[in-house]
Write the structure tokens for this entry.
Amino acid sequence: QVQLVESGGGVVQPGRSLRLSCVASGFTFSSYAMHWVRQAPGKGLEWVAVIAYDGGNKFVADSLKGRFTISRDDSKNTLYLQMNSLRSEDTATYFCAKDFRVYSSGSFQNFDHWGQGALVTVSS
Amino acid sequence: DIQMTQSPSSLSASVGDRVTITCRASRVIANSLAWYQQKPGKAPKLLVYVASRLESGVPSRFSGSGSGADYTLTINNLQPEDSATYYCHQYYSPLQTFGQGTKVEIK
């Protein structure tokens, strides 16, 4: 069965960096685009970023561009989110999610599987 | 970015009721619309995709409809386990966006 397990969350000071990881299993990771979605405490869902199945296309939410970077290592079945210059408003649970369609590259689909989330708290 | 306006933000209904949640996109999104259910402390769960296709295993009391920029999630015969927050999600643009969510409470 599909499993997505995030790690790397924790408490970090404003202005510092953090890298989240998402290890995938139960499907051919290298064939699917992958997404990050976040949710601030008590708030709604916010799409963060997507990376194509082959890593060729990457998109980041406009509000996060320049600070957040998405990447993948297919040899490790792992998705990453590098977060720099963190702010208090980045405090959230970060979910990784699998794209619905195989071989998505320039256009993407809904999410059919989600991880359990990793909590990032930005605080001094 | 495509903005998604979801309404209502919350509702309270009785077991057996029919509930309707709407989502309006700021532009036509050509049925690239999904609905998710989220319960407290859990990851969202896919209910409907391509506006009206029910995900495998989702009870048939859930249904999606709409076209263009306007979409609807309907829950028929509301059950206690349907108490949750529901989100619409557009994937027409690579810069995807969610609605603000609708919290459904059971009276």
